[in-house]
Amino acid sequence: MANGNHIIEQFEAFAPKKFALEGDPIGLQIGTLNKDVKRVLVTLDVLESVVDEAIEKKVDLIIAHHPPIFSKLANVTDRSATGRIVTKCIKHDIAVYAAHTNLDVTPGGVNDWMADALGLESCEVLAPTFENTQYKLSVFVPTEAVERVSTALAQAGAGKEGDYSDCQFHVDGTGQFRPLTEATPYIGEAGRLERVSEVRIETIVTELNQKQVIRAMKQAHPYEEVAYDLIRQERPATSLGLGRIGRLPEAMTLREFAEHVRNAFGVQNLRFVGDESRHIQKVAVLGGDGNKYVSTAAFAGADVLVTGDLYFHVAHDAMALGLAVVDPGHHVESVMKEGVVNELKRRFEQKKIDVELLISTANTNPFQFL
């Protein structure tokens, strides 16, 4: 059992809200997180059948990829599917939390799970949406507290450079200050000028972890007022975004690749655009509706784009660009169910959070095939 806020805190450490595209209705949509949670159900969609499953399994929290509430509701009654979903969840004290485009963008999220399912190698971001800017953090620490503050910085994620962690630079010096009468100084007395041996610790933080690093630094630092600088770095930032583009270990024909996609995602049928005999090796993949990214994939040099909900005229555009497209449907994003559960299990084990994680078995794919 754990507090719902602590559970979502762990989830958002993996898929931060700031990754979401503007206007995306993510986050807590129904109920409260300020409660004890024993069971969490992970689902692609929140349909009424999923809520019934959650009620039957005595679930306290649903984590979904697709938000059940995309626009403002005029009312909440049993006359609409959304109204019944909201009513049932509130009646049975089931909170619903949605992670949509932030789960698409985050490293190790939906698009990486899809790329892994296809066996793609050397993957890069297809459509950048977020730059993880780097900053140099400098903090002045009394000598006796250096080890404590240094460790806190590293444990919070500061100082990661490529394949190295705990990267810091320490410089000895002398700090000077005069506590005013209202101060309660760790060293010295109010009104008297003090000079103490200090160490300047320099390290690198990013847009993503700077808040948690600074919070950890302040908690570990003995001073009442911590002196530190945060300076934006001009070197290129890591780009995060929608979709991935990578390569197959070996080329195959478009028809063979379409069969590969069908098997990888376990779908009954799919559609594809292009000459079935052309050879495919460089592959772009984008979960959900990827119609807006056909030209992006083509200009990135992809032989084929794997995405869902392909429009008729966009298929013509792809043909004109010389880009093959394989459409296995929107529902293949259901790879997120197992992916999220595995990620949270790992994090919960590290934090000793005792919560049962369940994968929804309700079928939310609206399509059937003859």
UniProtKB/TrEMBL annotation:
Q: Would the keyword Metal-binding be found if you checked this record's keyword annotation?
A: yes
What Pfam families does the record tag this protein with? DUF34_NIF3
User: Cross-referenced InterPro entries, in alphabetical order?
Assistant: DUF34/NIF3, DUF34/NIF3_bac, DUF34/NIF3_sf, N-reg_PII/ATP_PRibTrfase_C
Concerning SUPFAM superfamilies, the annotation shows: NIF3 (NGG1p interacting factor 3)-like
Q: Is Metal-binding one of the keywords?
A: yes
Protein keywords = Metal-binding
NCBIfam families tied to this protein: YbgI_SA1388
> Hey, which family's this protein in?
Belongs to the GTP cyclohydrolase I type 2/NIF3 family.
Protein's recorded name: GTP cyclohydrolase 1 type 2 homolog
Q: Name the source organism.
A: Exiguobacterium acetylicum
